[in-house]
Fold this protein.
Amino acid sequence: MGKIISKFVCHECGYETPKWLGKCPGCSAWNSLLEESISNKPLRRTAERVAAIPLNQLSAEDSPRFSSGLSEFDRVLGGGIVPGSLILLGGDPGIGKSTLLLQVAGLIAAAGKRILYLSGEESLQQIRLRASRLGINNDTIFLLNEQDIDLLHEYINDLDPDLIIIDSIQTVYSSKLSSIPGSVSQLRESTAAVMQIAKKMDKAVFLVGHVTKDGSLAGPKVLEHIVDVVVYFEGEKNFSFRLLRAAKNRFGATDEIALLEMSGQGLVEVPDPSYVFLSPGRDISSGTAIVASMEGSRPLLIEIQALVSSLGAGYPRRMVSGIDQNRLSLIIAVLEKRRGYTLSACDVYLKVSGGVFLKDPSVDLGIAAAVLSSYLEKPLAMDTVFIGEISLSGQIRPVSFLDLRLREIDRMGYKRVIVPTSPGRLAKSSHNMEILEVKSLDHFIDIVLEG
């Protein structure tokens, strides 16, 4: 029998050290090292040796997929669920992760497939009550209240399910380790065991993961490296809308988003999210601009609101919701340097409607327009959309997928769009709206705000 030794592992990044430290050298987190006991008994190989296969003998066809029953969820997954894939769904407590997966299980079971739902958090009666509320009553959904992940292989051999749901990966454990469920070692061992089952038996597996207070998935980063797909389920508990965002996808595009609405009967798809991110019948007021942002392969029209007020005592405040705060500071610095606006003597507040977080650089022009509109107390035209990335030199840089954005703007009924100058890339005759090209921040301000 091997000797039992202790080590300290950071539950944020997985850094290991033989002694306790107040600050993790790997991620600089405080009080994140937890003690774990391990055995240094040498591992013996029990698996059979597998043969290497030449590349040209493997099929070049795309992996077959089956639908989750929710077209918006299929979009985020890259077109459907791939057998043998390992999908990690993360989100805040109470956001609706279990409801979403139980609803997906009901839809897939209705198509004639078998589902194994392993729950380590809730009792079977709690799951049954939720299923009744969602109107799910299928005899091909098998519920299991078991935390020992080493027994999963036996249940799969008995039931032969097409889809396996584990809710959640932080509550299951492997009996090979002595550490508690949810520890770094257990997370790595359990996820590796599930991955081996998914790949060898060609079974699709959903893992539910908890998130930390800063919004990242709990546990070591190796958890995200092991799985095939990482999907974040985002939203505010006080609002009914929920966002699904793919952060990693080996079978499709990343940064795809889907919009769902939480109702009494479960989650309902929102096929046209642009209407959600725009204020219906809004009045003409300063500080409001419409931008066209690419979220994955889908262009969305989103409203940005800015408020510039005179500076009180102390330092100027920069408060944002929906974009990176450093990005707002950069745009303000360009406006001060290139046009001489004294925004350093003002408090600036910025909000993106709908709760979505924007990373697309093409919304820079809309942010600048909203800030200047509030600063100058000059409302922007309600039928105008702004597209463009602002460089530090004050130039308006071209953006990608311009034609897709223009088609979405035209479909939504807007009459004018401000875009960067892009010779040879703009087909004005194909769109029923006025397209105004600007080459610099000076040009934009002169013709739009001060013209």
Summary: The domain at 288-449 is CATH 3.30.230.10 (Ribosomal Protein S5; domain 2).
